[in-house]
Amino acid sequence: MKELLLLDQAGKSFTVREKILYFLMAGWFITLFLPDMPVLNNIVTGAVLLHSFFYNTLAEKWQYLRQRREIGFMLLFYVLHIVSTFFSLNKQEGVRMLVLRLPLLIFPLSLGLLFIRQEVKDRALLMFGLVTALMALACLANAYTRYRGSHDASNFYDDNLTLAIRRQSIYIALLVNLALFSLAYLLQRTSFTLEYPRVAWAGILFLLVFHFMLASRISIIILYSSLLIYAAWDIVSKRKYRQGAILLLGLLVCVMLLINVFPKTLNRFKELQYTGYSYTGHGIESHYNMTVTADQWNGANIRLAVWRCGWDLAKRHWLAGVQLGDKQDRLMDVYRARRFDFALLTVRNMHNTYLDVLSCFGIIGLLLFLGGWLIFPVWNCHRAGDGLGLVMALAFAVSMVTESYFDRSIGCLLAGFFFCFISASHGEYRSSVKAARGRYTRHPAAS
User: Fold this and answer.
1) DSSP H stretches of helix in 271-426
2) Kind and range of the H or E element at 206?
3) Model-level pTM greater than 0.85?
């Protein structure tokens, strides 16, 4: 607890501005999970922006803007939103999307232009892991209360499990992934000592179970693929064949146990057997709590059908897109032309962030997006030796394949905060020679 409240010796050494930033980030994590209270999160986000303005000098901000190319691309990407809204026919929708996507501007202008020392970063990650675990515990307790009244086991799965915080399970599953990566990272750091490491291990085990119950296919694939890659890397690079074999066997046993205890999650993967579709089909939408059949719409074939419509739209407007305010209207037109009644009735978006950006802004917007939200973040994490940042950025990149992150408020908040948090933990490169060699050093002013 002393570590979280900065009452230990290392925490007391933080500067006043670092302490304020740390507690603002802690408040942001907490308000992110409060149900039906977006105003509180907006207030904390605004406070982060205000504090960041006074955190360092304008000269330092300009220096970081020049060094961190991803921040420049992020800002240009949002400027493109403003221009696109001006040229949209449906300006009301364009303005609505501009407001919804404000985190894509606010966080690059605030966190993206700061430098967060490793010590502050570690405390923030610890707080994030704790808050996420407490959120998961609250969700599970709420689900159990509902189960006692209905005796319906479906309360423990998917969106039902996150009903207490009014959040879609797919976004919570990504957050749980990030929390698991963060706690594992802190446990293996030799320069950071946890006061109660067993509590962190207990949090990891609990979050692993909770994550499986969320039944998000893409997040499960990301998590267990990451574990397999790490185990393989550990075996090859460190030649720890016995430990690696034990880790792989333990992972297999863990998955088998989870499948047996929570069989409904497996139902989500059974949908992948039925990827065929007819646009004029009027089957019901499958659910993890029902038998999956070929005549249903499911998470797999819905996306394949929507992606085909989105690609048709993008091909016709490949250079500059259909504009921000008109994107959903034009997509509905494609659905009508194909008689895709199911997508029309449920007002489906692209279910793919990359395709969404391409359709909306054309190839120019896609290049800006890739530069700011994928290429430069991944490259800079590699150069800085930031393994955690690299895994987090790639987790977002893969998650965006199956969801339109920027069409949801929580998607914009998560991407805006975490990408800029990762960037803010990278210092400057002292010279072009060292930069070319990928040698990383802290900003001297933050020492």
Assistant:
1) 299-316, 327-337, 341-346, 353-370, 376-384, 387-399, 409-424
2) helix 197-214
3) yes
